[in-house]
Specification:
Elements (H helix, E strand, L loop, with lengths): L4 H9 L27 E4 L13 E4 L2 E6 L6 H13 L7 E2 L10 E2 L6 H11 L6 H9 L3 E2 L9 E2 L2 E4 L4 E7 L4 H19 L5
Parallel strand pairs: 5-6
Antiparallel strand pairs: 1-2, 2-3, 4-7, 8-9
Length: 202
Amino acid sequence: QGVSAFKRAQIRYRRRGDDPNRSDDQNDWIDFSRANQDDRIIQLSVPPTDHDHYLGPIFGLKDFPGFMFAPQAIADDVQRELAYASVTVYCEPPHSTNIDLTPPKPNEDTSCSRSMWARWNEEKRDETKREPKHKRQKSMQSQMKAYRSFKKLSWATMGYHYDWTARSYNKALKSEMPRLVDSISKFFAITSLLVEEAEPIS
């Protein structure tokens, strides 16, 4: 009582460090590549329309109306574009990240204007030129660390920023939604509305 469906699922299916390979929930797993062999899976249809929409297969679950799975949703080249933008653009200002919620420590430098991606690449290039480990440890102790780095990054928010304390979106705090993410979101929003109006494929 009082526990959301998401929280119940998280508790049931979460893998713990002391038992990462548990399989007692194996009967609950769903393999959409074998949709014709699993009675829990239904194939959904998309009616003809003049709007741009997803043309690949879409599956649902009998016991969970509204759930949709599109196995060919995003092409490989678009996935690569999104992945690259995620580490080069989407995690940088004006977008908000978990790093922004924590004040910098005394040994963290906030004046660096280079992106986290640029600094990470620079660190990787310098790895082959580094001094012996014992000398490197001494020099690192006296150096300022970057306030923003991939080591600290957990999440980034685009568009309206969610206030977890107030449990609401602050309309005064938002960043522009990236064009690619915006177009993909609209594309699948249209598709999902079309699917909801159609009958499952029998």
